[in-house]
Specification:
The complex is a heterodimer.
Chain A (H helix, E strand, L loop, with lengths): L6 H33 L17 H8 L1 H31 L7 H9 L6 H22 L13 H29 L3 H9 L4 H12 L1 H16 L3 H6 L11 H11 L3 H27 L6
Helix pairs in contact in A: 2-12, 3-6, 3-9, 4-6, 6-9, 9-12, 11-12
Chain B lengths: L2 H31 L4 H6 L11 H9 L2 H32 L3 H12 L9 H10 L6 H24 L4 H9 L4 H12 L1 H17 L2 H6 L8 H11 L4 H34 L2
Helix pairs in contact in B: 3-13, 4-7, 4-10, 7-10, 8-9, 10-13, 12-13
The chains are: A mainly alpha, B mainly alpha.
């Protein structure tokens, strides 16, 4: 690239082109992130202007905080079920909807719809569905399991949260899988079917290996979204009944902003970050090994 | 088409239609109940409304302060998306064309930061900006969206700038354009499709975001639509009619845009995912 003459002009260009982005990025992401690590070693209560260092006490408090580990293990369970269900359903829908069926684009648009709406609104809609519509159905059609609201029972409320999450995200992942499937070259598929591979063999031996990059992206996204779930959790169950469906994000939020235990809250957020980073990096690292060239 | 193939595509069609109905039906329940009185809703949430009375809507519209919330959401979303795209495109372009070690590391830092979840930053963010007295303002929020949204935008632009031939820009520079003019006359127009993709992804995120604005915007008159909806729900927990209407009002703008631009939105998500 042709450079300007003089150090000053070069610096001016650099600042003009990268200044705004980098300044915002550093002051919003990097400094708070580093300051957050510092906060985990202090006993800030959210009000006082002085902080005192307390060493690793907050981290010890994290390990002693039974509620945190309860919400963390619940989140793990939730992430497991949502990631599997979202990706299986999304892939199947995408697979059927790339076959040139009539009305294909209407189906795609319909399945994508829940994604456009914010988690808060979705949570409230489903709260009404579970508390009113399904209960009414249960009572009038004598379906025992629906006749009392799912949201009042810890176990069923957990599954309600899983159902809403899958419904919210399946369409989004479906679109990414559709993008991947349309990239699978037609000529090798035709060659395979001439060679006598039936559709099941073609799917298993050719489509799935070629789709590994799409699986990496979708599983990465659904893992991230699952661990960080907050809006839907808040609007659907508020973590209830009796904090039985409180996911880890909500726990951290309450620890910091409601119990005013900022040091411990930040330490928990940081522990959460390390675990999620570890899980997603492992996921990407191991699935990269499965990639094949078309 | 053999008979077997016709049968199988009919079965596929029926199964898909059933799934589609399951996907859409929550919105249908929302809509029919938004026109009903509270009594009618609680006694039978499946019945159709007797009339399309707009009482609930008027009620929700006023109490939510809909116009103000909508305006706040619109200003925040439009400005954030605009600035993210503009600044990120310039930065990505600079990184590609000045491929020094320093710029490479800066770019890598931005990409690596994408794995940091918002929850790990929210507490120090509130502390820092609170002590600077910068909370409770739209402008702070827009600034934060630029900070949080830049990484992904720079990353996507970076991939596309690489595919633009250098010769165009070099010719412009030799003809006496400054770097700035070259960028705006030649590079930015070429990047338009990418800008559309990034803007769609960011609109979906910022318009619906709840946690960040709920921490930053404290005053009722500053509220965005999701905040206003949440607050309205907290105050009217038992009066279902206006609640349903408020949810419909919140969804309405998105659905309208989706009807007109669904092709582009779905395309945007597709292109944004292929990295």
């Amino acid at each position: 690239m042709i450079e300007e003459k003089g150090v000053w002009n070069r610096l001016r260009t650099r600042l003009l082109f990268t200044g705004p982005t980098l300044f915002a990025f550093i002051t919003v992401m990097i400094i708070p992130f580093l300051y957050g690590i510092y906060l985990t070693f202090t006993n800030w209560d959210g009000i006082s202007t002085t902080l005192s260092l307390v060493g690793v006490q907050n981290y010890l408090a994290v390990f002693r905080d039974i509620e945190f580990w309860k919400s963390f293990s619940l989140t793990l369970k939730y992430v497991f079920y949502t990631v599997v269900l979202i990706n299986v359903i999304a892939f199947m829908l995408a697979y059927v909807l790339t076959k040139g069926l009539k009305g294909q684009s209407i189906f795609r648009a319909g399945f994508f719809l829940p994604n456009l709406v914010g988690g808060i609104v979705l949570g409230f809609i489903w709260q009404f569905i579970f508390n009113n519509v399904l209960v009414y159905l249960g009572q009038h059609a004598s379906i025992q399991s629906l006749s009392t609201t799912w949201l009042a029972d810890p176990d069923k409320a957990f599954w309600a949260l899983v159902i809403v999450t899958v419904w919210q995200n399946a369409g989004y992942m479906m679109v990414i899988y559709i993008a991947g499937l349309t990239g699978v070259p037609n000529d090798i598929m035709e060659a395979a079917s001439i060679d006598g591979a039936n559709s099941w063999t073609r799917l298993r031996k050719m489509v799935l290996p070629l789709m590994v990059p799409s699986f990496i992206v979708c599983i990465f996204l659904s893992l991230q979204r699952g661990f960080m779930v907050y809006d839907v959790n808040l609007a659907l169950t508020k973590g209830g009944p009796f904090s039985s469906t409180q996911m880890v994000s909500m726990h951290v939020y309450e620890k910091a902003f409601l119990s005013r235990d900022y040091g411990v809250g930040q330490a928990e957020a940081f522990v959460l970050f390390l675990m999620v980073a570890l899980i997603t990096l492992l996921q990407v690292y191991f699935s990269k090994k499965l990639e094949v060239e078309a | 088409m053999t008979r077997k193939r016709i049968a199988s595509s009919v079965i596929k069609f029926i199964v898909l239609t059933v799934i589609l109905i399951l996907f859409i039906v929550p919105f249908v329940f929302l809509l029919i109940n938004s026109f009903k009185e509270n009594m009618a809703i609680t006694s039978n949430p499946l019945s159709l409304p007797e009339s399309f009375s707009t009482v609930n809507y008027m009620n929700a519209f006023d109490k939510m302060n809909y116009i103000a919330a909508f305006t706040n959401s619109l200003v925040i979303t439009v400005l954030s998306v605009l600035f993210i795209s503009l600044f990120a495109a310039m930065t990505a372009h600079y990184f590609v064309r000045n491929n020094t070690k320093f710029n490479q590391y800066t770019f890598m830092l931005m990409v690596a930061s994408m794995i940091i979840p918002f929850q790990a930053i929210m507490i120090p963010l509130v502390k820092i900006y609170g002590s600077l007295d910068l909370l409770n303002s739209k402008w702070s929020l827009i600034y934060m969206y630029i900070g949080f949204g830049s990484s992904l935008a720079v990353f996507i632009y970076h991939g596309f700038v690489k595919s633009i031939p250098k010769e165009l820009e070099e010719a412009a520079l030799i003809d006496g354009c400054t770097r700035f003019q070259t960028f705006f006359r030649i590079v930015f127009p070429v990047l338009m499709p990418t800008t559309a993709t990034i803007s769609i992804l960011n609109v979906l995120w910022i318009w619906n975001d709840f946690l960040l604005p709920s921490l930053i915007l404290v005053d009722p008159e500053q509220r965005t639509l999701p905040l206003s909806t949440y607050n309205f729900y907290g105050t009217y927990t038992v009066d279902y009619g206006p609640l349903m209407a408020s949810l419909v009002l919140t969804i309405f703008p998105i659905i309208i845009i989706y009807l007109f631009a669904q092709k582009y939105i779905i395309q945007g998500v597709m292109q944004g995912s292929i990295k």
